[in-house]
Amino acid sequence: MALEEGAILARFDSTDTQLRAREALMGVMGDKYVVALNLAPATPRWLAAIHAEPMKLGLDLRGGVHFLMEVDMDTALGKLQEQNIDSLRSDLREKGIPYTTVRKENNYGLSITFRDAKARDEAIAYLSKRHPDLVISSQGSNQLRAVMSDARLSEAREYAVQQNINILRNRVNQLGVAEPVVQRQGADRIVVELPGIQDTARAKEILGATATLEFRLVNTNVDQAAAASGRVPGDSEVKQTREGQPVVLYKRVILTGDHITDSTSSQDEYNQPQVNISLDSAGGNIMSNFTKDNRQTDGNPVCGVQRQR
To answer: Which PANTHER family match (predicted)?
Structure first.
């Protein structure tokens, strides 16, 4: 047994022993740890001492599993369309330009109807400066049409694929597979090859798991001692942070990750890491209404809870 790259590697003489060990470990550790069945190199020490490397065998010789996944590009671009609608609505309200309706159009575009051509022309001039990634033009007597530029669509597609590649690589690392392959194929497909893996069902379960994100309000009325012992009100529950510290959250879910259209990482004014998220129009309204209805909780932090199933 040894510690390799942050994971514990245990070797066994037979597959039967390996399977029994996995069942025993899973019963003790639960869902907090991944217990994966793999083949590990058995390079003798004298070969390792002269820096000899084992021959890399492909799936045809070594066995393993091959996955081909397709990114749901329609959903990704649809969320971006929702974000554009919300952004243009907000800009028009701030500028004081009245409009009557906003509709979705083909190719992830949108159209806005105004009372007259004057308001439409004023909106085109104003919005074109604020949104250089949108192609905004007049449509009919009192409408404008906005579509994402080819460069913006290409950037959005690239981001969606790369985001999924990063997620899959992180999940592959949980399996502890030596020499995995995670690479792009074509415009919107991703190939995952896991040489030598024995538990293919477990690999499929981890790679295909659905992660959900919930935003909840932290209950600051419960002290740390009560939180550690689990003595919390009925409307709250105790969760563990990544560092293992207890935190008391209200059970009510404010918002889910379904309303997130984009996310980026950056640093705040104190050079600490932070995550910036953009919400669709429905998500923005939910957060706005929650803030208005819960003024007495101003200053209470909101916690993000990730669930994977």
So the answer is: PROTEIN TRANSLOCASE SUBUNIT SECD, PROTEIN-EXPORT MEMBRANE PROTEIN SEC
